[in-house]
Amino acid sequence: MDLPPVLAALGATATLKSPHGERQVNVDELFTGYYETAIKRDELISEVSVPALRGRRAAYLKITTRSADDWPALGIAVAFGVDNDKISDARVVVGAATSMVMRVPLAERVLNGAAITDELLREAGEAAAQEAPISGNARGSRGYKRELLRVCVGRAVCQAVADAPRSIGF
To answer: Considering the entire predicted model, what is its pTM?
Structure first.
């Protein structure tokens, strides 16, 4: 549950091989439903390619109900560039709280082109919570997971910035 959101946020691609040849699939397009993927019956993932960050910032937060190695209630990955102290090319990917790993385009649009402020982080979290089709289960109700998502989008962005070299102005 941890690796797919991270790979999707980083823009990774998977090479799928079969007796008929190979094809490339963006990891964020690999998941099609609950335990369902775009992988055909005669295909295997033979390679995963992750592009270099090249100055981009990224972070992953995992929220569990028990221990760090437990199945997460929420996994949230973010990746973005920074241009003149503003976020660019934001990718927000949620897993575990939804039936499949998925990007959250509304939250990405809120973040793109904006300077990081507390208000921006609240807006992005609210956008993600409104858009993502949250699923409840033994690790938390839909309402609980929606609130986690609302808060953790901003926390993930802050972590990505905190882990960055101090040369940026945040």
So the answer is: 0.91
